[in-house]
Amino acid sequence: MVHPFDPVSDKEIQLTSQLIKDAAKGPEKPHFIQIDRLDPPKKDMLKYLEAEKSGKSLPRIPRVTYVYYYLGLQFYKALVNVTYGHIITNQKQPKGVQGPLIAEDIEEIEKLATSHPIVKAEIAKLKLPSYVKVVCDPWMNGTDGVEDRLLIQCYMYLANAHHSESNHYSLPLKFSPVFECLTKEFVRMDYLPSGVDEACINDTEPWTEFPFVEYHPDLNGETIKPLKPLIVQQPEGPSFEVDGQKIEWQGWEFRVVPNCREGFAIYDIHFKGRSVIYRLSLCEMTVPYGDPRAPFHRKQAFDLGDAGFGATGNSLALGCDCLGVIKYMDCRRVNTAGESVLIPNTVCLHEQDGGLLYKHTNYRTGVPVIARRREFVVQTIATVANYEYMVNIIFDQAGEIRIHVRATGILSTMPLDRDVTVPWGTNVGPRVLASYHQHMLSFRIDPAVDGYENTVVFDDVVRMKKDPKLNPYNVGFVTERTVVDKPGYVEQSPFTNRSYKIINENKINPISKKPVAYKIMMPARQMLLAGEESYNNKRAQFATQQLWVTKYQDNELYAAGEFTNQSQTDTGLGVWAKRRENVRNDDPVVWATLGFTHVPRVEDFPVMPVEAHEISLVPFGFFDKNPALDVPQSSQSFNKSQYFPESSSKDSCCKSSL
Amino acid sequence: MVHPFDPVSDKEIQLTSQLIKDAAKGPEKPHFIQIDRLDPPKKDMLKYLEAEKSGKSLPRIPRVTYVYYYLGLQFYKALVNVTYGHIITNQKQPKGVQGPLIAEDIEEIEKLATSHPIVKAEIAKLKLPSYVKVVCDPWMNGTDGVEDRLLIQCYMYLANAHHSESNHYSLPLKFSPVFECLTKEFVRMDYLPSGVDEACINDTEPWTEFPFVEYHPDLNGETIKPLKPLIVQQPEGPSFEVDGQKIEWQGWEFRVVPNCREGFAIYDIHFKGRSVIYRLSLCEMTVPYGDPRAPFHRKQAFDLGDAGFGATGNSLALGCDCLGVIKYMDCRRVNTAGESVLIPNTVCLHEQDGGLLYKHTNYRTGVPVIARRREFVVQTIATVANYEYMVNIIFDQAGEIRIHVRATGILSTMPLDRDVTVPWGTNVGPRVLASYHQHMLSFRIDPAVDGYENTVVFDDVVRMKKDPKLNPYNVGFVTERTVVDKPGYVEQSPFTNRSYKIINENKINPISKKPVAYKIMMPARQMLLAGEESYNNKRAQFATQQLWVTKYQDNELYAAGEFTNQSQTDTGLGVWAKRRENVRNDDPVVWATLGFTHVPRVEDFPVMPVEAHEISLVPFGFFDKNPALDVPQSSQSFNKSQYFPESSSKDSCCKSSL
């Protein structure tokens, strides 16, 4: 039986698109952009989950899909009841609202960008040798004011024509055609600045050879270093069980559900029989660039809202992306014709060793108590044009949930004139600029800490006042708690060790005598740099603060709002966090901005070693003691390690000789 | 042949103690505390390393040991030339200067603390049943003013008499005898406050039973969770080579040298033939507590200076502390009689998988380039009474060095009266208080970024001013660099994304056109909370700021100074960082404070799941491209992963049915 949280199926996608096609009476055929399952209403789901837990008969919750499509240049959103097969609503969206980009359109534009006569004329001026080809990276337009057309900015590059994996990012060109995304009409040719200011624009001149900087092993000129295998074996199989989308592992129970916008969401997370989170996902990411020169000022991607992390998800391969015994899940998306497209293996699930979980050696007896941290990983990797993002949600045996993100892939590069450096970027190759930029990710945490009535608080650690009686030596420090009772954001305060917590005021821990809690651990970070009056800022309010709280409402899932492509303003947290509602001991939603400013290194090119960032959710007085005391002791009979072969150590016989 | 960086040998320890014994003419026998090798003078070593590199004949550098010992109550330090066998200097230390504590003294005090008649009389008042025993945790005294005697504060606990591994920290007692450490004389009995202020002190009354909170699997009452093996196999052996202390791995070369104070230091670190660091180590840690009530205000351990991370190092066990193929190194210490004591396997060295190092999927062809991050780990684990600290220095294939610290073990607990809570601590068990405290670690980085003339700088990322020509859209941001030319500290500034770098102004990267650099990545943290006028603060100036710079001088190795036990003042950075010297393009030393405020969780008891913190050192325009392009591609033929057995998935046949 299908579960209300189960992902959209091929049949549901096809039924949805068929109903929309049938409803489109005019001459234009629907041009589909996205179809996926709508989250069921939470009120209904809580009853469902309650019944599921207690083994009662399950209420029927109709399956509903949403669909984004265009008729001509008009953008529509509809909701479809796919259980009963009818359209619920079908709405023209206001002028200026655009849907995300879709692979089929991008592919067409990409081809056009090298075949359109105006571009071909420009390319001809380069007088390229036959071993060099032109490649196009289509970019969302971003915004610098009202633009009703859905535009694509094509950044152009050169690459080795004789190898499909040549790195075009090492040879950026100085012209950039712009196309209309739906009609595929040529709009204009932009000429790119390649010097210290916007005025440094050159005419297109014959290309003079300079080196390619390649990353593919066939081309990079490197001799591969010898490395011996390190194999993860699970001879008795994995320690997790899978039942549809439901996972059980070491006391954890949850449902992992791929979707095309977020990559995946995890629902109904319980540990040791107690609820922790109702829904957890990466819900948006924006990548604004700090290069002020037109047209680069419009480089601001919303990787989820403008593209989709499932839709751009990698098909993960056994033995490449993770080690051990791997369970895969697939994603489905719609194509522009309304057909379901399978993207296999976009989510992988597996165990890994996480080093030691705890150890104590009794120095009196020399006896250690020692447990290793086994971890359960839910991973997706998305390729958004040049960049790769790895999102790992990692569970451990002590009740911790770690959100672990790695950025890798290739820097989006721009041309530079010889010997030029600019203060907003790094020269990462000969005449190749990688501008400073930021990666601002929003993780949406819909908590259920021991129930659904939760409260968000933050604690500061502060010095006690000097007091001749109570603090005569001036060493004391205490915590001070502030309750968040209205929606909004919490300011960062690293120097008071500010920590955010989700508590349940109705459940008092018998040991600590304080409300049970989960703590959100994230280091203080620079938030969005773009000025308050800039579009980059107005469109991404979520990225201006690290932690936001709103009151739960159905369908408020994405931090920057539902439609981000060419948006002028944030229709997410920028709106919802302003509502004057109570969120204390109610149903708050927490939005955590994991942001990092990326000042590119030369070493980040031609492919970037991962930069990793984390948010941790840890039980804080949720249990009455360490919940991992039931983990087996770490032992050689279980782990089967080996001594280093000492004979290969050249002077092992004369160690410590004087 | 012995290398100048090689660790102290048994013979060197014995020769040193024999020379000191021979020199001690008086009636008192030397009471030894610590003997170890002194670092060779850097000036001499640079010549040695130069000769070593170029294959020239090696200059002879005499091996020198230092020795700490007492004659009666007088503390001495001597330096001994163990190559030629003579004492270089032998100095009485000023009144009040004390050496670190040593295991033999602690063991004697521990026994006395339950056998001394005054304590026995107090214990008798508890009227304990036979299944309960009394256990003592001896603590360094700390400081609250001039105290010439070397004192030990004995915190007392109850435990299950029938099991050696019973957790005494779950039953703290309310009296605390104080002994003189050298004479073993009883000094006084302290009675501990167990209520909201210092005045809440009760007479010792008969013990009334309340539950033990146990961590040992024999006692904790838990049913062990089933977990299937995850085995790391290296069928072709490890990828590293060992030659004495020298390690070679994936382009890295360095020497790992155990010592009794720091656990280990790593010398002469090169990557791909270029020098990066001359010496790297954890050089001090202080743990001040925030409980203001006497005598707890004196709880401030200096785990290296007061005890020693090698001296308290765990003998790591195969298959327990790490997985795969493991190389071990030993530590040596002196006992009070002057004999060498071997602590086997205090340092382990091995490889581990670190997930993906980089990936890029060409969306046009679907072809991924993908490399896994193999890591090389140097690990030590120290047990300083209740707490365990794991220090991992982790090297990767892209030139990164990660300092990864995990805190685990058991909270130092204090008694509480029934139903009492206090604002400076967490109730972690029935009537058990774990006070808030801080762990402030100092890592000493003696850099050699492409040579020994280095400069420390910091970069801030700041918004560009609005400018109608250059920044009309107000999205621009740039970096601003500040050079550290005098010793001192750098203030944290997370909201300008401040990053510290060690650069070599004499070597310009041909690509970036900027000096080659290594970047120090560490998140902003709360530093020492103890007030400026407190001893906790005066003794640990290093812990008040995150990053310090001094000019290199021989024998300036420890952030809080050489002698920390009962110190009144910091004789390390607090002195050296005030010297008005040039450190630009000279020989700077960087001291990075990795600090965290520990507000205990109930879940941290009775044994604490690891809390991990990191500092990363990454090449920043040091190479002319990603230095890891020579890493083999990640492939199934190499990694041998397995598919999840789908038959165990209960409804795998009806996935995505509508």
From TrEMBL, chains A, B:
It is an enzyme of class 1 (oxidoreductase). Topaquinone (TPQ) is generated by copper-dependent autoxidation of a specific tyrosyl residue. Its EC number is 1.4.3.-. One of its GO terms (molecular function) is primary methylamine oxidase activity. PROSITE patterns: COPPER_AMINE_OXID_2. Contains 1 topaquinone per subunit. Residues 3-89 form the Copper amine oxidase N2-terminal domain. Homodimer. This is Amine oxidase. The lineage of its organism: Eukaryota, Fungi, Dikarya, Ascomycota, Saccharomycotina.
